[in-house]
Amino acid sequence: MTDHHPRARGFLGRFLGSWRLALGELVIVALGVLIALWADQAMQARQDSSRAVGYLERLQTDIRADIRSLRFSSNQARNRLAITRQVDAWLRDPDATPDPDSLVVKTHFAGVTFSPIISKYTIEELKSTGDLRLLRNEELKRQIADYYNQIGLQVEQWIGWGDEGITETYFREIAFVVDPELRIRAGTFDPELMGRFLSAFSEETPTSLAEIQQAAPEIGATPADAERILARMRSRPNFEGYLRDSMYWAHLSALLLDGVVLTAEKLEVTIRKEIAALQ
Question: Could you tell me how far CA 224 lies from the centroid of its own chain?
Fold first, then answer.
């Protein structure tokens, strides 16, 4: 029996030594796998963070362009309100003797709208690619959703209603009030300046309708034309109502657009803070 003890002890020692070696190798392999997974996840997290920053910077550019466009449209709505009030005052004053060219231009532009140009390329890409998941800040995502819902449900529907209702009926009415040639001259503008005037992406743009009409021909309206236009306005049973609809629409449009500007400004601040936190 004693002769077998050294042999048994040697076998057991070799077995335990092999087991310890195998366990050590297994631990090393497991640690290697875990480190590789951690490194891969860390790299993926850095890539996702970098992509999120890229999207946020593009979204910030879009929002800033939207703010300029919304402010522009709000200012033009106020201009339209002032124009319609002036035309309404001439209409109600039987002794009014407005400058003929001014009467033609203001009567024409009382029905002109300048809708905001909203940049949706980045948000549409985020939604279509599923990359909206890269934005981890839930409050930011809620603000983004609120902003674009406001654009869709308020601004775009409001503009559509105004274009199809107020603007369309007003322009049909002034076809019976202002002679065609005078309307053509009033509506003539420099195309290049108009493009800059309507641009949401440039801050060096004309700021008034007068500036975009630099290359326009003189209206050339006479006092007789002005008398005839005012007489037609007063004789048309619907003209006064359409003009005041346009006035009210301009007033509400300015208020609505001002509210969307506030939402956009708050969103831009949140995006700016999120970009700083991720960098």
Answer: 45
Specify the amino acid at residue 211: E
User: What is the Cα–Cα distance from 135 to 175, expressed in whole angstroms?
Assistant: 52
Is-contact 65 119, C-beta < 8 A? yes
The residue behind tokens 């076998």 is: 11
State CA 22 to chain mean position distance: 64
Q: pTM for this structure?
A: 0.76
- DSSP H helical ranges for the chain: 4-92, 100-109, 121-129, 138-150, 157-162, 168-174, 180-186, 191-198, 209-212, 223-235, 239-278
The residue behind tokens 């631990």 is 27
Lowest mean pLDDT among 61-65, 85-89, 132-136, 271-275: 132-136
Q: How many CB atoms lie within 10 A of CB 45?
A: 10
- Is the pLDDT at 148 greater than 70? The verdict is yes
Given a contact cutoff of 8 angstroms between Cβ atoms, the answer to whether 144 and 267 are in contact is yes
Q: What tokens were used for 182?
A: 């005078």
Distance CA 69, CA 118 (A): 7
